[in-house]
Amino acid sequence: DTGVSQNPRHKITKRGQNVTFRCDPISEHNRLYWYRQTLGQGPEFLTYFQNEAQLEKSRLLSDRFSAERPKGSFSTLEIQRTEQGDSAMYLCASSLEGQGVLETQYFGPGTRLLVL
Amino acid sequence: RKEVEQDPGPFNVPEGATVAFNCTYSNSASQSFFWYRQDCRKEPKLLMSVYSSGNEDGRFTAQLNRASQYISLLIRDSKLSDSATYLCVVRRGANNLFFGTGTRLTVIP
């Protein structure tokens, strides 16, 4: 399977714990994105990497959230001191730079987080 | 005001029906437009890009009206397998995608 993969697919944690999610993009894609989706809403942008550089962060990305892409390949998203409001589906997407307006983001299956 | 607004539905239509979804976007600087499909508890998948002149892909037709900041999706001859949530998406700036809340479609036998 050469699509975007995410691990774990599900995570249940207690409030106050730290969690880390991993995303492996499509291999030749140099752009990687994190989104969050809650029930009944569309995905909301969190942050974006081009290669290893984190170029943009949403206001939604509080200081408890940190994302890395150290080698420009896989990325991790860590949430510290989780809160119940962090419960959501965390989606990763990747795309290939250089296709102009037709550049398409391909999404992974997501990590569903439940904070108790 | 939300970046992208859609009627959340639900739309319940019989097999074979034609159904249309509409979407408006608030920022005239939006550059690219898409429809994504999302099945229950699955990730969004690109259905089609929306071009300025309008475009068709089989039973699906997308239209864009930049002056009115309006995007539409028409599905002809609905199939049971078309049941899903349809997300209207715009891109503005670097690469951020802005999603609507989605319109839920159920095609009934």
Report what the structure shows.
The complex is a heterodimer of chains A (116) and B (109). With 116 residues, chain A is mainly beta. Chain A is 0% helix and 48% strand. Chain A is built from no helices and eleven strands. In chain A, the strands form two sheets. In chain A, strands 2, 4, 5, 6, 9, 10 and 11 form a seven-stranded mixed beta sheet that branches. Chain A has a four-stranded antiparallel beta sheet with strand order 1-3-8-7, with no helix packed on it. Chain A is globular, with a radius of gyration of 14 Å. The model of chain A has no long low-confidence stretch (mean pLDDT 93). In chain B, the strands form two sheets. In chain B, strands 2, 4, 5, 9, 10 and 11 form a six-stranded mixed beta sheet that branches. A five-stranded antiparallel beta sheet of chain B has the order 1-3-8-7-6, with no helix packed on it. With 109 residues, chain B is mainly beta. The relative contact order of chain B is 0.35. In chain B, a hairpin with a 4-residue loop joins β7 and β8. The mean pLDDT of chain B is 93. The chains are: A mainly beta (116), B mainly beta (109).
Keyword list:
heterodimer, A: 116 residues, mainly beta, seven-stranded mixed β-sheet, four-stranded antiparallel β-sheet, B: 109 residues, five-stranded antiparallel β-sheet
